[in-house]
Specification:
The complex is a heterodimer of chains A (227) and B (159). With 227 residues, chain A is mainly α. Chain A has six helices and two strands. In chain B, 18% of the residues lie in helices and 21% in strands. In chain B, strands 1-2-6-3 form a four-stranded antiparallel beta sheet, covered by helices on one side. A two-stranded antiparallel ribbon of chain B has the order 4-5. The longest helix of chain B is centred in the last third of the chain and has 18 residues, at 128-145. Classes of the chains: A mainly alpha (227), B alpha+beta (159). Chains A and B meet through helix 3 and helix 4 of A and strand 1 and helix 2 of B.
Chain lengths: 227, 159
C-alpha cells in the first residue's frame, strides 16, 4: 500500500513551541496550546509574525510524502493553538487578533489532503484500476428523490429489499410526491421573482411614504426582471 | 486514510490506523474557585464531537506527548431559543446552538498546570473600532476599484 511508506515516521513535535522564551510557560507541558507570549494581548500581530498565505497545491506536489505527513501535524497543532486562543478571546468578549491565520492553516490542511488523495488515487489506478475515492451509487428514495449516495461497507450482505436502487419510473405515492414538490418549487420561484420585481420598482419616495408599487402590467417589457 | 473514511474492521486485520487525523481540540479555561474548579493536574479541552475518550487519549499522547492518565468526557447541550419561552405547552424551538463536547484530561500527579493570563498587558480597548476602520480603509478602497472581469487574462497576473 502507498501509506506503508510513511508508516514509519512518527509525528513530529514542533520544536519551536517547545523552546519558549517566556519563563512563565517554560515548564508547562500545555504551552504547545498557546501562542507565543509576545503576542498575548495584542490587537494585531506585527507584520513579520503574520502568515502570508496557505501552501498551494502546486507547492505541496513538489514535497515528498514524508514531508507532507510532517507538515500535516505541524498545521494540526497550529490550528489547535489558534482555536484555543480564539476561544479564550471569545470567552472574554475580545477581538481575536488576525483571525485569517485560522483560514490559512485550514486551507493548507485541505490542500495537503487533496494532494495526498491525488497520489493515493494514482497508485490505485495503476495497481487496481479503481479510484481511491469512495464509490458512489445512484439511489432513489421512497419519496422519489434520486441522488448520489456514498457506498458503505457492511459486515454482511443486504437482506431482501434493503439495498436501494435507481428507479426510472416512479410508482403512485412517489410520483404524486414529486408532482407536488415540483409545483411547490415552481410557486416558490414565481414568488421570488415577483418580490424581486417589486423591490426593483420601489423608489425612495414609495419606501418613505409606505406606498405600494404598481400592481398590474399590461406589457411584459415594463417588468425589469423578465427582460 | 483520514478520520473521514472509516473502514470496517474484520477479524484478523490489523488495527485501524489514522495517518492524517483531522480532529480538532482546544484548551479551555476553568474557574480557579467555586465548585467548577478542577485539580492542578487536570486540563479541560473542548474537543471535536466525533472524538471518543480513547481518541482523546491517543491524540494527546501521540501528537502532544502528554502523560495522560485518565480522560473523562462531558457532553453539553446547546441553548435552545424558544419562540414563546413561558408557554410550556405549545412552545416551539426557533434555534438551537450546536452541542459541545468537553474532555477532562487527568495527567500524572507531578504535572501542574495554570491557565496563563493571556490579557495581562492587553492594549487599550479605547479606540479599537477606529483602529479597525483605519486598517480596513485600504482594503475597501481596493475592493471598490478591483477589476474582477478577468476571464481571459489567466492565472499569471495574480488574483
Amino acid at each position: 500500500m502507498f501509506f506503508r511508506i510513511i508508516n514509519r515516521i512518527q509525528p513530529c513535535t514542533s520544536q519551536q513551541r517547545l523552546l519558549s522564551r517566556s519563563p512563565a510557560l517554560q515548564n508547562s507541558l500545555l504551552q504547545q496550546f498557546f501562542d507565543d507570549e509576545e503576542n498575548f494581548g495584542k490587537q494585531e500581530l506585527r507584520a513579520k509574525k503574520r502568515p502570508g498565505r496557505s501552501w498551494t497545491n502546486e507547492e505541496l506536489r513538489l514535497k515528498s510524502s514524508e514531508d507532507l505527513h510532517k507538515l500535516w501535524y505541524v498545521c494540526l497543532k497550529e490550528r489547535n493553538m489558534l482555536l484555543t486562543m480564539e476561544k479564550a478571546h471569545k470567552a472574554t468578549a475580545r477581538h481575536f487578533p488576525n483571525p485569517e491565520r485560522l483560514d490559512r492553516v485550514k486551507g493548507t490542511l485541505k490542500n495537503i489532503e487533496e494532494v495526498v488523495h491525488e497520489r493515493n488515487d494514482a497508485y490505485y489506478q495503476l495497481e487496481t484500476g479503481d479510484s481511491a475515492s469512495a464509490p458512489k451509487r445512484t439511489v432513489t428514495s421512497f419519496m422519489g428523490f434520486t441522488y448520489e449516495k456514498r457506498a458503505e461497507e457492511h459486515y454482511s450482505p443486504p437482506g431482501e429489499g434493503q439495498k436501494g436502487y435507481e428507479v426510472p419510473y416512479l410508482d403512485d405515492d412517489a410520483y404524486l410526491m414529486q408532482k407536488l414538490w415540483n409545483e411547490k418549487e415552481l410557486c416558490k420561484e414565481r414568488d421570488r421573482k415577483d418580490n424581486l420585481a417589486r423591490r426593483q420598482l420601489a423608489n425612495d419616495e414609495m419606501k418613505h411614504y409606505k406606498r405600494g408599487g404598481r400592481r398590474t402590467f399590461d406589457r411584459l417589457e415594463d417588468l425589469k426582471v423578465y427582460q | 486514510m483520514s478520520a473521514k473514511a472509516a473502514r470496517l474492521w474484520q477479524p484478523g486485520n490489523p488495527q485501524r490506523r489514522v495517518f492524517l487525523p483531522d480532529f480538532w481540540l482546544a484548551l479551555v479555561e476553568t474557574p480557579t474557585v467555586g465548585r467548577h474548579r478542577i485539580p492542578k493536574n487536570c486540563a479541560k479541552f473542548e474537543i471535536d464531537p466525533r472524538m471518543s475518550r480513547h481518541d482523546v487519549r491517543e491524540y494527546l499522547t501521540k501528537i502532544y506527548s502528554l502523560p495522560v492518565r485518565d480522560v473523562r468526557i462531558e457532553m453539553k447541550m446547546g441553548d435552545i431559543e424558544w419562540q414563546t419561552k413561558k408557554d410550556t405547552r405549545y412552545k416551539t424551538a426557533m434555534w438551537k446552538e450546536d452541542d459541545k463536547k468537553f474532555a477532562y484530561v487527568f495527567m500524572s500527579k507531578s504535572v501542574e498546570f495554570d491557565f496563563p493570563d493571556l490579557f495581562r498587558n492587553a492594549d487599550e480597548l479605547m479606540g479599537q473600532v477606529d483602529k479597525y476602520k483605519e486598517q480596513l480603509a485600504d482594503v475597501e478602497q481596493n475592493a471598490r476599484y478591483v477589476n474582477r472581469d478577468r476571464s481571459n487574462v489567466g492565472k499569471f497576473f495574480g488574483l
